[in-house]
Amino acid sequence: MSRFPSIDVQRLRWFAAVAEELHFARAAKALHISRQKLSHTVIDLETELGTKLFVPGAQPTRLTDAGQELLREARDSIARSEEEAGTAADTAPATLRVGFVPGVTVTKWERIWGRRFPDTPLELVAVAQADQEPALREGRVDMCFVRLPIDRGDLNAIPLYRELPVVVVPKDHEISLLDEVGMADLAGERLQDTADIDAAGAAIELVAAGVGVAIVPHSIARLHHRRDVVYRTVTDTDDTGIALVWPSARTTDLVEEFIGVVRGRSEHSSRSPAAGKGTEPEPRKPHAPAKRPRPARKPVPSRKKPARGRKR
C-alpha cells in the first residue's frame, strides 16, 4: 500500500520533475512554472509528509531516502493516472474543456454551444490567472480565456477585447464624486499591490477598511464588488487584454467549432482555419460611453448692411 495516498498527481509530477533533473530552475522551466512556485510545492510536500525529500544544502541537489521512495511511487502513480485517463478518453463521449480566468464571463458561449452541440459536453474550468499557462501546457484544459500577456511560444491566440482599468475607493471617498480620474488624481493615495489578480479580493477588502485604493481591471472590480466601495475609470493607465488561447498542436475539430462560436459564426457557415497561424484579428477597443450627437444648428440668415449713399 502507498505511503503517500493523499498527494495529488500534479504535485507528484512537479516533484518528479525536480527529482529527475536534480535542478529546480531547469525543472521549473520544463514545467512552465516559476521556480518559486515549484520550491513552495516541495516545501509543502515535506511539511505534509514530515520528512525531507532533498538533502538540505546539498550541491548538487540530492534526494534523501524518503525522496527516492517518493520518486518510485510518483512514477507509478503518474503512469496509472495516464493509463486511466487514456481509458476514460476511449469510453467517454468527446468533451471540450474550456478554462477561464477570474473576471471572464463565459455563459453566453456556453449557452450557444449547448444549443448547437447538445451531444458534446462543454466543461468549463475556473483557472487562476497564475495557472493559466500551465493549465494549457499540461493539458488540463483544451482552450482557455486568459488575461494577456502570455508566453505565446507554441500557443495560438485570438485577442477578444480589452478591459479598462478602474480605481476602487471607499464609498465616502472624494473620488466617488467623479465619473473618471487620472493618475494625477491618485498622487497622494496609497496604492494597494494588485499585480496578483488572484489576490485582488484581499486588496479590495483593505480598501473597504480604509487602507488605500486599488487599481484593477473593470471585470475584477465587478467580481469583488461590495456595498462599501465604488470604482471609477482611470483614463491614463494601461488597459488589459482578454484572449482565447489553445496549444497549436491540439487544434481539434471541437476546438475549431468553439472558435466559430466565439467569433459569432452562424451554425451553417463553413469553418475557417483557426487563427494564430501568422495573422490574428485586432482586439476590440475598450468600450467608451457613447457621446450624444450635438443638435444641428439652424442656418443664420446673413444680414447685409445697406449700402451707404454718396454724399453730394
UniProtKB/TrEMBL annotation:
Residues 265-312 are annotated as: Disordered. Gene3D superfamilies: 3.40.190.290, Periplasmic binding protein-like II (3.40.190.10), Winged helix-like DNA-binding domain superfamily/Winged helix DNA-binding domain (1.10.10.10). CDD domains: PBP2_LTTR_aromatics_like. InterPro entries: LysR_HTH_N (IPR000847), LysR_subst-bd (IPR005119), WH-like_DNA-bd_sf (IPR036388), WH_DNA-bd_sf (IPR036390). Keywords: Activator, DNA-binding, Transcription, Transcription regulation. The keyword Transcription applies. Residues 286-312 have a biased composition (Basic residues). It comes from the Bacteria. Residues 7-64 form the HTH lysR-type domain. Belongs to the LysR transcriptional regulatory family. This is LysR substrate-binding domain-containing protein. It comes from Nocardia rhamnosiphila.
